[in-house]
Specification:
7 strands; five-stranded mixed beta sheet; elongated; alpha/beta; Glutaredoxin; two-stranded antiparallel ribbon
C-alpha cells in the first residue's frame, strides 16, 4: 500500500511539474527574430488584393499556425469575436506554417467558414513574428492594433481581452486604448515552425 501511495505521489508530482513548466514557457515572450523590422501603429498595410475584403471596412487578421498549441487555446475566443463583430469587420485567417494545408482544412481547424490566406508577407507587413497574433486594420487599411488576444492562455480574462478591446475602440472611432506591454509583446509560437 505504501508503495502505491509513493508511486501515485511521484506520478502526480511529475504531472504537476510538467504543467507548471508548460505554463512557465507560455509566460515567456517569443524571441524577436534578428531580421525583425518594427511596424508602427498607423502604418498603411498594402494588402494588394491578397486579402478578400469589402472596400471601406475594417479587416481583422488572425495569424494562425495549426501546430501551435497557443493557437488552439484561443479557438473559442476567436470564434466568439467573429460571431460578435463579423457584420462590421472582415475576418481573415492568415496561415503561417512550414506545413501545407488547404483552406478547407484550416477552416475546419478554426471552426469557421471565413477566408483563409497563405501569405507570410502579410505577417511581415504587420510586424507579426509569432502565432497566435491579431492585427486590426482600420477602414483605410492602416494598422490600428497588432498584438495578443488576451493575457490569459485560454483568453478567458475579460479585463485583458486586448483584441476585443481594440475592436470596440475601432468601431467606436476612438484612438487605440492604452494597453499593457503584455498586449503588444508577442507570446506564442515562433514562425514558421512552432518551437515555443
Amino acid at each position: 500500500m505504501v508503495l502505491v501511495i509513493m508511486w501515485l505521489t511521484l506520478l502526480l508530482s511529475a504531472v504537476g511539474a510538467l504543467f507548471w513548466y508548460h505554463d512557465w514557457i507560455y509566460q515567456l515572450p517569443t524571441p524577436i527574430p534578428a531580421n525583425y523590422k518594427p511596424v508602427s501603429i498607423g502604418t498603411p498595410i498594402d494588402l494588394n488584393k491578397k486579402i478578400p475584403q469589402q472596400p471601406g471596412r475594417p479587416v481583422f487578421l488572425h495569424f494562425y499556425n495549426p501546430q501551435c498549441p497557443c493557437s488552439k487555446f484561443n479557438r473559442a475566443h476567436f470564434q466568439s469575436l467573429v460571431r460578435r463583430y463579423g457584420k462590421d469587420i472582415d475576418f481573415v485567417v492568415v496561415v503561417l506554417s512550414d506545413k501545407k494545408y488547404s483552406a478547407e482544412e484550416v477552416q475546419e481547424k478554426v471552426g469557421l467558414a471565413i477566408p483563409v490566406v497563405f501569405d507570410a508577407s502579410v505577417a511581415t507587413q504587420c510586424g507579426v513574428y509569432s502565432t497566435p497574433q491579431a492585427a486590426l486594420l482600420d477602414n483605410e487599411q492602416k494598422l490600428y492594433y497588432r498584438g495578443n488576444y488576451n493575457a490569459s492562455r485560454y483568453c478567458s480574462d475579460e479585463k485583458t481581452a486586448y483584441a476585443q478591446i481594440a475592436i470596440q475602440g475601432l468601431l467606436q472611432r476612438q484612438p487605440l486604448p492604452m494597453l499593457s506591454a503584455k498586449a503588444l509583446q508577442s507570446y506564442g509560437c515562433t514562425l514558421p515552425v512552432c518551437k515555443n
